[in-house]
Batch of 2 targets.
Target 1
Amino acid sequence: MINLATSTGIPLSMMAVLMLSVFTVSLGYGIVLPLLPFVIERLLGAGGDAAQVSRATGLLTALYTFALFLFAPAWGRLSDRYGRRPILLIGLLGFSATMLTFAFIENLTAVYAERFLSGLFAAAVTPAALAAIGDLAATEEERARRLTFVSLAGISGFLLGPMLGVFVSRGAANIPPIAGAAGALAVPLAGTAILAFVVAAAVMTIPISKQSDAAQKRDQSASQTGRWLVPKLLALAFIVSAAVGVFEVGLALRGKQDLGLTQYQIALMFTECSLIMFVVQAIVFSPWIKPETTRWFIAPALAVLAAGLFLVPRASDFALMLVVIGAVAASAGILSPILTYWISSKAGMAQGAELGKQTAASSLGVTVGSAAGGLLFDVTWLPNAPFLLMAVLIALGVVLSLSLPNMLVAPKLGKGGDDRNVEKFSPL
């Protein structure tokens, strides 16, 4: 069992608040997903049809992730300049205000504005929270595990959000004072707004200080990293997120249209995916695996991810789909925290800026992958196009990652300037 309360540089209270911050914005995104079609259907009224609802749902979801892509780097740079606490507060309070507004919107155009603004403020939270950990982690082991905790908090929010949104809205519909579609759908949205406000209040109570002495010494060494190393890691973050986007959309479409699975079976596949990602992320930076060892996992995990996506359209029944889903989820779940850790490790003093870029790359990847998964699913010129093309892109990522293990851990030269005292690392 991994213990959050250690004697290292990040207090337990601060860690809990940072995790809650990321959990809250992920929860809000997850809550909106299943409710969005019903909100759109209500706002369109009798004149709306299924095609309009589907198109608006896709555009609004893409608009949110596109706002994350646009603004996460800027928020990260601002947190480097003005501190993590102000940016976290702006992000959480802005997210709270937009979600509360969403609960009472009566115009579809206003929904578009709300989704963009909600993504804009949500983009501030994750880079600032991750950068705060990068600032204060006294050791690489602490940095790796605390970054993973934040990632797990985000996955938990996304996993819980859809179920909680549906459950709360259905329960609210049975309460006479708020019965009716508009009132019932507003309850989980308003609840998320209140939670974000409470977490913002908690942010004001924790001591988010500047970098510790140990972190500054470590970051002076990290700042000597080659100029193309972090861009390579960001490119891989984009590829992995695009693969997840293709996989999630393609999985739902293939389950419904090709395999004729029930809603319960499709939901079970997504639940399996989230749970496996949660477990492997908890394992990959456990006390049994040294952080520097994780650099050897990148290329093999990418290869498994490519093979899994290639096999998705070839899984002919539900049982085989579960096996393939396990491989894809495990490889993607391993890669995400590893890439975040190494980007933070090589960011030097620019933790917010580089982790903002990582958030942007991941958001753009999900946007592009989701769009490709839907638009290319039924093309006739290339059967199974989204899965095949994504597998090829990931294969290129494997080639890109082959040189990373040696680049990520720089040799330590001896006194004479040679490499006789180079520290050796084994992949095992």
Target 2
Amino acid sequence: MKKNILYRLYAAAFIGVCLVPAVMTPFVGSSSSKEKRELAAVPKLTREGKLNTEFFSQFETYFSEHFAFRQQLVDINSRLATSLLKTSPDTDVISGRDGWLFYGETADDFLNINTLSRRAINNIHHNLRLIDNYCRENGADFIFFSAPNKNSLYPEYMPPNYVETSAPGNYEMLTEALSGERFYCDMKAALSDADSSIPLYHKTDTHWNNLGAYAGHTVLMGMLGKAACPAGNSWFTKNDRLGDLAAMIYPAEAAKDVQVYNDYQFTYTYKGRFRGLDDVTINTQSASDGSLLMFRDSYGKAILPYMAECFAQAQFSRAVPYDLDNIQADAVILEIVERNLGDLQKYAPLMSAPIVQQGETPVIDAEIFTESAGKYTHIYGTIPKKYLTDSTRIIVTVSGISYEAFNCFEDKLMDREGEICDNGFSLYIPGEITDVPEITISE
């Protein structure tokens, strides 16, 4: 009898605990402030005057994202997983040694698996060389660099079960291809050589910290022959950074990470409307000299103040494709994070394609598309792989004029988003066209 009573009490307590989140949901609810996404809205019984047949599945999603104490329970689960099992409950986050967190999408780069083909590496090299030539012809210096993944600089903090292969990774293959180019900045080597007792990347965030960004800035300014931004009298740290990776798996905590500061007082100002460093386009001005156009991703946020301070006029853009039309800058910098290097063989930049000699071999079965793009015609498509070697150049001839194409696969325009293809081409030529483009190739 006593055992039955204990069983019943245990069952009642268990059911009671399980019911607490559901009962408390109307009074407590959940917040999406740290989850880097928009949570499901309350579903409606009717939609466009008709019964919503997906109401129950939508309500299930809504409840699973809004029940009371959700963030606290997720947090407890994550803490148990990372401390006891040494793993992350979120596939987007890798739980490393000593509390270090890494972005899940960098795993392939770290392990050197699923790497780009030799053709893809040559495509990227070809595309960057065309950009460099265009910038030089328009009086601008060009620099390209890739911000290293955090685990590329701090592999010792990755979990022991992540073992690198002996094969070269995308960064290494591209560095080898670009080693003789005047425009290439090997940022991984530069940061690896930096003399710093303080880590250059955040422990629980994807990105480099202010000190890492400053180290990168000094290298870039050296390549441009300009003085770097002053760093003040000293560097100091504060625990006031909310790590983006920590926020993903510990949503209920403040999850503060170390940020590095110096006491230099910036003098640059923002031009036009400025809402935050995530703006697609940011314009700045300062009492310095020269002008800058910098294409960047989220790694550009920390380096932006230093670059802005050193140019009288600067524009920082996150827009893709890169708009190089009518460059009005003394220097052009293109930055992209290591994990996204493959994107450099997508989305040809907006600029007039260079005029060249027609190729020797005609391509009679190319897939060709055209669209109007302001004062340009955008021509893009693919050619069969049988025509390609690792270094094949694709030439597009319209009305007797031949243009060098970027080796880019416009996946979104071709309704093949996310697909990797090494045999695409894309370019912009002035004006409208009436003739069917001819495709030839050359080595």
